[in-house]
Amino acid sequence: MLLEKYSIGVGDRFGHQGVAQLRALKRAKDLGVNVVPVWNKSNREHMIIGTRPSDTRRAADEAVRGSEWKDSYYVDADHIGLKTVDPFLECSNFFTLDVADFIGMEADRSTMESFMRSMGPMCGSVRISGIPTPLAVNEKDLHAFASKYLLAVKEAGKIYRHISNGRANQDFVVEISTDEASEPQSPMELYLILAAIAEERIPIQTIAPKFTGKFLKGIDYVGDVVQFAKEFEEDLHVIAHAVNAFGLPRNLKLSVHSGSDKFSLYQLIHRAISGAHAGLHLKTAGTTWLEELIGIALSGAAGLDVAKVIYQKAYERIDELSKPYETVIAIDRQRLPSPREVSAWDSVRYVGALRHDQSNRSFNPHLRQLLHVGFKVAAEMGDKYLHLLETASEIVGQNVTDNLFRRHISPIFLGRS
Hints:
It is a single chain. By secondary structure, the chain is an alpha/beta fold. The chain folds into two domains: about 5-285 and about 405-415, Alpha-Beta Barrel (TIM Barrel), CATH 3.20.20; about 290-400, no CATH class. The chain has 17 helices and ten strands. The strands form two sheets. An eight-stranded parallel barrel has the order 1-2-3-4-7-8-9-10, surrounded by five helices. The protein has a two-stranded antiparallel ribbon with strand order 5-6. The model has no long low-confidence stretch (mean pLDDT about 95).
C-alpha cells in the first residue's frame, strides 16, 4: 500500500463531515492536484467523545460511497502505542506510531553496544545534496543520538511488528512521529533516526519531525518562519538522501502535525515541496469541529444558543479540558471573554471571534483554542448536538469545505493564497 504524494489528515470528531471534506479534495483534483484523505482520530479523542475506531472507519466508508470518491482513502490510528493500538487493527490502514514517551530514555547496555557496532561505519563526513555543510558524525555524536532516540526507534519497531502480525498480512501505511521531542531534530539526528528505522526494517512512508517554534492547536504558527523554512528544506534533503542510502520506501515524505491554520508557513511549504518535487502529509484534525460550531452558530437562534452554552461550559471547565492538550495550546485566560459577555453576542460577533480570520478585529485566538479543546462539551450533549449538525448540515458543510479547500489545500498544494 503506497501512500500518494500528497495527503491530508481530515480529522472529524463527530464523523459527520466526510462528504464536505471530500468535496474540497474534489475541487483540488478538478484543478489538477490529487490530494488523498486520511481520516485521523486518536485513542484520546475516542475516549473523550465515547466513540470507537470502527466508528471512524464506518463514517469514512459512508462518505466515500456518498461522494462517489474513486481514489484512495485511509483511516489513521493516530498517535498510538502498544497499549492503545489493538482496537484499531481491523479498521485502520494507516498507523501513526507515537514514541514520544521513549525519547530521551536510554536503551540497555547491550542494545546500545549493538547499535554502536552496526552504525560505526557511518562515522565520518556525510555529504547531502542541498545542504552546503557536510554532516560530521563521530562516535560521540552517535552515542549521544543513541542515548536520546534509540529506545524510541526500537519501540516503533515493536509497534510495527505487532500491527503487522495483528493485521494478518493486510497492507497498511506507517508514519512515525517524533514531533513531541523537546528540541527540533538537527539534520544529523534525522539522518540517524532514518538509519535506525531502516535497521528496524520499518517500511516508513511518512515521518513527523519536531520543527522549531510552536504548533498550537487551531491557530497560526508561533516562531521564526525563516528558521522553520531552513529546517523544513533541510529535512526534505535528508529524506531524499536517506531513501537511497538506507533503502527506505521511495515515497517517504514529511508529515506536519498540528498543521491546521499555520497560514504563515503554507507558501514556504509549497515552494519547498515544489522545488524538491517532494510529497507532504498535513494533519488538520480539530478545525473540522470548529467549522461545525461556526455553522451551527450561523444556522439560527437555536444553534447560536447551543454555541453559547458550549462556550460557557468550556470556560467553566477550562482546566479539565486543557489538561490533555497542555503542550499544544497557549490560552491567556485574561483575554477570554466572560460567558456573560458572550451571551449577549449575535451570530456575527460569535463567528467573528471564532473563525480564524486575522483581518477581523473580533478574532480571538484564545477563545478559538478553548473551543478547539472543548469538543467534549458538545459530545456530552449527545443527540441534541448531533441533531443540530443534521438540521444545519448545509451551512456547516459549506464552512467545512471552504475551510479545508481555501485556507489549507489551495495555498499548500496549489500554491494559491
